[in-house]
Amino acid sequence: MRFNIFSKGHMGHRQTVIIRGIIVTLLAAVISLALFFLVGIKYTDTMFAEFSYAVVQGSIYDDAETDNDIKINNITEGTIDESNWVSPVVDSQYGYIICDEVGLNAPLYYGDSENVLLKGAGQSVSSYFPGQGGTVLVGGHDTTFFGCLESINENMKIKVNTEYGVFEYNVTDISIVSGSDYDIKSDKEQLVLYTCYPFGKTDINRTKKIIFVCDKVSGPVIGGAGDE
């Protein structure tokens, strides 16, 4: 006797399973939505940021996206011939920002789009590159890569390791400002790091930034820019 797997009785069971699946899915969606409104956006934002950070740290992004194969040039002094120096491409990684004292080790990208800031620290395309003698303006999320900046104090050293040289800066000023504008200077090389303030307060609309101004201590000069 052959048993038809599409018999009425089997179809009834199959339909029941499908209906149960739909009901469970809908209930899960309703519960998730209710929890969102009950606990607020703070936790969802934090979880998203932490997940993004975990994805980055876990190297889930492919090599082409994270540029983990960049090679650091360990030159710490001298002059780099500007005719042989090639500017990094927008949205590409060209180095790392490091401060061992607070555990800072963030991939440095040229550009500060949201996609870039999920992968590391982003340099403003309106600012100068390390070695060019002007302001190097770099931002990052306080819930991920720049969260450790909360522990940075004046006189700490920050290194910027790039594909064309290694630069060291000394933290000289820490301030809290309103708004997002910053004056880009061309007469003095400074690394300026910024992130949202207060740290980790994703449940409020933050309009303030914390700014870390760092004077150049050492590193090569591109085309003789700036006087050491």
Q: What features would you highlight for this structure?
A:
2 domains, Sortase, Chain: A, 228 residues, disordered N terminus, two-stranded parallel ribbon, alpha/beta, 28% strand
Give the % helix.
25-40%
Uncertain runs with pLDDT below 50, 5 residues or more? 1-14, 41-66
Reported for the largest beta sheet, the result is:
8 strands, mixed, barrel
Give the full name of the CATH homologous superfamily of the largest domain.
Answer: Sortase
SSE run: HHHEEEHEEEEEEE
| Structural class based on helices, strands and sheet pairing | alpha/beta
Q: Which whole number gives the mean pLDDT?
A: 79
Level-2 CATH architecture of the largest domain: Beta Barrel
How large is the share of residues in beta strands? Answer: 25-35%
Count of helical regions:
4
The overall number of domains is 2
CATH level-1 class of the largest domain: Mainly Beta
**What does the overall shape look like?**
globular
Main sheet strand line-up: 2-3-4-5-8-9-7-6
CATH fold-type name of the largest domain:
Sortase, Chain: A
Taking all Cα atoms into account, the compactness measure Rg is 25 Å
Number of strands: 10
